[in-house]
Design brief:
Blueprint lengths: L9 E4 L17 H8 L7 H10 L12 H15 L4 E5 L9 H8 L1 H15 L3 E6 L2 H13 L11 E6 L9 H8 L23 E5 H19 L9 E6 L7 E6 L4 H8 L7 E4 L5 E4 H6 L4 H6 L8 E5 L5 H14 L6 H18 L3 H15 L7 H15 L1 H10 L23 E8 L9 H5 L4 E3 L5 E3 L4 E2 L3 H10 L5 E5 L20 H5 L4
Parallel strand pairs: 1-7, 2-3, 2-5, 3-4, 6-10
Antiparallel strand pairs: 6-7, 8-9, 8-10, 11-14, 11-15, 12-13
Helix pairs in contact: 2-3, 2-8, 4-5, 4-6, 5-8, 12-13, 12-15, 13-14, 13-15, 14-15
Organism: Streptomyces indicus
GO molecular function: 4 iron, 4 sulfur cluster binding; metal ion binding; NADH dehydrogenase activity
Keywords: 4Fe-4S, Flavoprotein, FMN, Iron, Iron-sulfur, Metal-binding, Ubiquinone
Length: 530
């Protein structure tokens, strides 16, 4: 099984580096080394900066691909109309398990990101800069970078800059969740659609874009539009950062010019010569089959034309030896667990979709498949944020891309291949999957009717006795099996199975836990904040 990706995997480059310049010299470019590698950067006015973004066709690199110049002008117009100072927000909350490009940039080239953000702040007249992160490494690197520039959140400073640390969850990277947390609220979508360009942090117009986007802006400002457009495709110039994982020999982040064949990038990472499929755009993205993956080039237009997506730049091939639908089920279950729990499509629809996909794989037949399709259709367009839509798109793409496997599961009870876990997912709670979850399975014998479905879902914990009724293991549920134990509870038609806290976890009883050490260094991360 693939381990979770490290924060900073191997970094490679195809052609001449732009974003990754200097990576061959040092592990992290501090301010002095950053200036030696990239040189100084002169400020420019708002309209000139917008024209630059137009000239290099700069789009957001966080997934949505919104034109940066339109966003910049919208913020400027709203700020002038209301007579208030706008805010600039860098979204470095890269919480998808298959993405590491922004994390690599923040850890190794934080000043390139700050260059772009400060360029935009100067052009807009902003006096507040917020950098959203979710990892220890990115928080430490960006905090150090602000200190190296003499920036802080001190009252009275010409520009107040701070790092906003949020929990590492899929939904915290959503723009409205980051804005909400920057205002002191929870890092969750607020449940209503509000344009950040009109009302963002503190109610002010807010320019929010992801870390790579600001780094690309800094590169374009330094080298100019003509030189920038000399790399890559005419209609999508420049380079992109991709994270390659899945069935590859060497997980990596690679900087590559647009227009390079996708098959070459896959070969660079040691992917199978004939992958069964390639997931593009990450876990809110879409699958390409082997033929489409061979024909695709690295560009937004090429991938979309073939049914894929550039998205957040995650590329994940899988080999012919694994069950593609089983891999999809693992991701679907994780996406359901990442729900903010604030709206029906997320709180109810995504777990139901994951459970429906499990039913299909476990021999539910055509009826289970039709029920799953109904659920995914019902989820689309009804959520408080884009998480339900992206998750439903992933499940629908999985069903569409692997039709032969799907037919074998629906008509023959399975494809005969194991699920090898090649798509990277975090361990539950960041803990060892063999550790206990603190819960155990309990059967209500007054309700149990001996259907036996629970034993099919989690045979490690439940077996059927000679009488056809379940025999539940006395041991607690380990973290690695907790998701399947929850599905067994949901699948019980008699509602006879439940998960409850183990005896030493019941409220009112003193839990057995090791003493935790103090954190004497925590204040150092907060120094200079008000």
């Amino acid at each position: 099984m693939n381990a979770p990706l490290p924060d900073v995997p191997e970094v490679r480059v195809v052609g001449l580096p732009q974003l990754t310049s200097g990576f061959d010299l040092v592990e992290r470019l501090d301010l002095a080394m950053h200036l030696k590698v990239h040189g100084p950067l002169e400020p420019m006015g708002g309209e000139r900066l917008a024209r630059l973004a137009d000239d290099v066709v700069l789009r957001g690199r966080g997934g949505a691909g919104f034109p940066f110049a339109r966003k910049l002008r919208a913020v400027a117009d709203a700020a002038i109309k209301r007579g208030v100072r706008p805010v600039v927000v860098v979204n470095g909350s890269e919480d998808e398990p298959a993405c590491r490009k922004d994390t690599v940039l923040i850890n190794r080239a934080p000043h390139l990101i700050l260059d772009g953000a400060l360029l935009a702040a100067e052009a807009l007249g902003a006096r507040t800069l917020v950098v959203g992160v979710t990892r220890d490494s990115t928080e430490a690197s960006m905090t150090a970078a602000l200190a190296e520039r003499g920036l802080s959140n001190r009252r009275g400073a010409p520009l107040r800059a701070r790092v906003q640390r949020n929990p590492e969850r899929m939904v915290t990277g959503e723009a409205s969740a980051l804005i909400r947390s920057a205002d002191g609220g929870p890092a969750l979508p607020p449940g209503r659609r509000v344009r950040a360009a009109e009302s963002g942090v503190g109610g002010a117009p807010t320019l929010l874009s992801n870390a790579e986007t600001f780094a690309q802006l800094a590169v374009a400002a330094r080298i100019g539009p003509s030189r920038y457009r000399g790399t890559g495709l005419y209609d999508e110039p420049g380079t992109v950062l991709l994270t390659l994982s899945g069935a590859v020999a060497r997980p990596m982040v690679v900087e590559v010019p647009t227009g390079v064949p996708l098959r070459y990038v896959l070969q660079l990472a040691g992917a199978p010569p004939l992958p069964q499929g390639v997931l593009t755009g990450g876990y809110h993205g879409s699958w390409l089959d082997a033929v489409a993956a061979h024909d695709a080039v690295v560009s937004r237009a090429s991938l979309e034309a073939l049914g894929g997506a550039l998205g957040a730049g995650a590329i994940l091939p899988i080999g012919p030896e694994t069950c593609a639908l089983g891999e999809g089920l693992r991701v679907a279950q994780w996406l359901a667990d990442e729900s903010a729990g604030q709206c029906g499509p997320c709180r109810l629809g995504l777990p139901a979709a994951a459970s429906g996909l499990a039913d299909v794989l476990n021999g539910g037949g055509p009826a289970a498949l039709e029920a799953l399709r109904e659920i995914t259709r019902a989820v689309k367009g009804r959520g408080a944020c884009k998480h339900p839509d992206g998750s439903a798109r992933f499940i629908a793409s999985t069903l569409s891309a692997f039709k032969d496997d799907l037919a074998m599961h629906v008509l023959s009870g399975g494809c005969g291949r194991e699920t090898r876990g090649v798509l990277p997912l975090p361990r539950p709670g960041g803990a060892d999957p063999g550790l206990p979850s603190g819960e155990r399975l309990v059967v209500d014998w007054t309700l149990c009717q001996g259907h036996g479905l629970c034993a099919d879902v989690v045979p490690e914990l439940i077996t059927l006795g000679p009488d056809g009724f379940p025999s539940v293991a006395d041991a607690g549920v380990p973290l690695a099996l907790r998701g399947r134990a929850q599905r067994a509870v949901r699948r019980c038609p008699a509602l006879a199975l439940r998960l409850e806290r183990a005896a030493d976890q019941v409220p009112g009883r003193q839990p057995r836990r090791a003493a935790l050490p103090g954190a004497p260094g925590r204040k150092a991360l907060e120094s200079g904040w008000s």
